[in-house]
Prior knowledge:
Layout: E1 2-3, E2 6-7, E3 38-41, E4 60-64, H1 75-81, E5 84-91, E6 98-104, E7 125-134, E8 137-138, E9 147-151, E10 157-160, E11 165-168, E12 170-180, E13 183-185, E14 194-196, E15 202-211, E16 215-216, E17 221-222, H2 227-238, E18 244-248, E19 253-258, E20 264-267, E21 274-284, H3 289-294
Amino acid sequence: MIILGKTACGDSDSMMATATNVEDINMIQLSSGVFDEFFVTTRVYTTWDGSIPEEWDFDTKIHALFQESLFGGNVEFTAESVSSILVKKRRVGDLHWKTFFEIPIHSNEDFNFMRNDFYNRSGEEYQYSIVPTLNGVEGRYSSNHNTSRVHSKFDGIVLVEKDVAYRAILDVRLSERRNFAVSVLEPKGRKKSIAVYNGDANYREYGVEGTFIPFDDGTGDFDLEHSRAYREEVDDFLTNRRPKILKYADGRMAMVCIVDSPVSHSSHNHISNVSTSFTAVETGDCESVNDLYDNNFIDTDHDVDRSI
């Protein structure tokens, strides 16, 4: 029977008792029985001899043997077939993924890892993907099971190195100006000057001010008792001569170096309310994996392009 160009049973499997379209399965419950094995696969069997495959393949989702545990995953299979795990990221709407972390896999325990990513703009949404590799060849990362979204949002100013971040949310001020290379000549006998543009320098310079006090996001309380020691820690961080990522609540983000000497302080009506001010200049592209790798923000050069 054909209705509006569509057949009622147009699919080759439409007359089978098994549903041909299944939504995501989030929970499975077994009860009132004795079970030797539990096996789930996305492969469709037209014939089945009653035996369950012992080897995992990419269609296998769960294979629990109930050997003194309820474990039904494929960690042992994966450890033998994965050289490393790549953590990739992109802004929602962007096409290309960028690798920010690479975790070598030598044993099952290596799959249990955690990484902090400090390199997101405020107000932006990012996608993350976990990608397995085998001898340098990347696996699939289009599945919903190994991708997730994160919305980045914070207040104040954040200064970041690879493994540490400091934030100021009180008395925050951020001024910005754009610098480029230009010289003005005033030749003898000419009424108007001549502008000469030398080089390709074109970068931002930031005036930064804020009060750095330890803050507990969970309770919303400031730790005034340890504010002086924390400020000393921030001063050491600002003067260690290493590149930093400067982020602001309005979405601005830049790779910078601190160029002020000295870093200055001023009090505001309270012994613990002391603001810190300094100048920073843009020294790299915070969106470029090349610059992030060269300035020691990321450890992996998986996506670094040396063709330029």
